[in-house]
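[SOLVED] Need 3D model of a two-part complex

Original post:
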Amino acid sequence: MEPPTKGTVTPIASLFSEEEARKAAIYVEEKIGEKREAMNRLQQFVDENANLINLVAKLPDQLHHNVMVPLGKLAFFPGRLIHTNEFKVLLGENYYADRTSKQTIGVLSRRDKTLQSQIRSLKAEIEDFQTEASFFTATASEAAEGLIEIREDYVEEDSSPTVLQSGAKEPSDLPGGETAVGEVEDDEFARIMSRLNELEMEEEQEGEDGDDRDEKHDSPIEIEEESEHDMVKGIRGETDHNKFMEQETGVSVPKKASGHSSSILLIQPRSKGKVIEVLPEKQPYKDIDDLLNQCIGPKTQYLPKDQTRGGIPQQNAGTWRDFQATSAVSRAKPKTNVVGQQKIESPIQKPEPKSETNKAFTGLIVEHDHNLQTNTHRQMQSSGSQPSKPVSRFMAQRR
Amino acid sequence: MSSSFALRDLQRDLENKANDLGKHQKEIAKNHQLRKKYTIQLGENELVLKELDLLEEDANVYKLIGPVLVKQDLAEANANVRKRIEYISAELKRLDRFIQGLEGEQNSKREAMMKIQQRLQSIQAGKAKA
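Solution:
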């Protein structure tokens, strides 16, 4: 019970005291006894009914029967039964009807049927009570033995193990399996994004004029870039580069956290809280990421691409989720597989030589690293024209 | 001194309530018994009706009134039984409602009793502390 939220342990004895359970069991047993009695009574009726049917069936065999007629408790006198085929049958509720033997047998057999159905229902009831009684006795004995009940609420964990599991279980990236984790991830992502947004706003305010100039400067480069990579263009055209930057940095932060701890240190002054939050999530990947450095290359590469194409933060969140899933997958499967699974990836990019894209991307990361650094520097120095500069440099490198 | 007064008051109150509740429960039990009787009668009447329906038109039907069997018309007997069934069903419904009301009252009374008991206990605990 180290983490208090994990679950609760309650001894059954505290929930149902042994005595109470025994009492309940006894009570139910009594009920069973009552029902048994009722059933026995009914069974007796059935037997009587059967006897009566036999008698009624036999009576009309002869025209008359010599019988001893009871007179009071002790006396009998000889008599004769005549009209052996005429019966006055009690229908119930003090109603009698004149019936022949055959008709009487019909009435009696119908009565027998109702009795049987009553017996059946009683039997079912008794069975129910018996299971109840056995349950109570079992509970009583369990309480006596000191059994405990461990109750653990299912909590959707936002830690990487779940991501890993879901990724491994559903490598095809089924939406059903991912949604729960994705929500949590979305939250995390949204928080990172909002923080980055804040910082970006600060920068913008610091160097507004410079930004404007650079944006104009940016656009021609964009077009050139478009021809090379579709990825970057979407967002460029739609939103200002600031947004783009923050998205990319948003991605690159956890990436670096997973890959290189040194770069984390660089980022830390900027968004300390966020990185630290992300870090534990990513740490399990660390060694594997090292092993699969090449894998990460293409993966990370299309990641920003998705984002740029989507151009909307919500979609980014989705890709972020995708990326996590694939990162889990990529460990188990060859690189090409990963590429195939990522539906969002453009077909143009697939055939591209990995090493090249790899380099390009790592360059991108480094560049952003730079960005961050410079940004931090800028924040300290608060020089007006700088904020746009790293972006343009990044462009140049990409080309 | 006043607290002891209050305590005694509460205890008397609790006793009264308990008695009341006991009476109530007895009444409920009685009504349940009545209800059971009516259900049995209803079942019997339904059986009679079934049998009467199966009888031929010219069959002789008698009703036992006291020590004598009185001959009755089949249609009359049939109508009588139907009426009786109707009456019993109505009675059952009425009883059901009545029992429900009684049980609701019983629950409210029990709650009131619990409250008084709690207050009593708290007062006693306070006393014990003091």
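Edit: Residues 38 and 122 of chain A are 8 Å apart (CA to CA).
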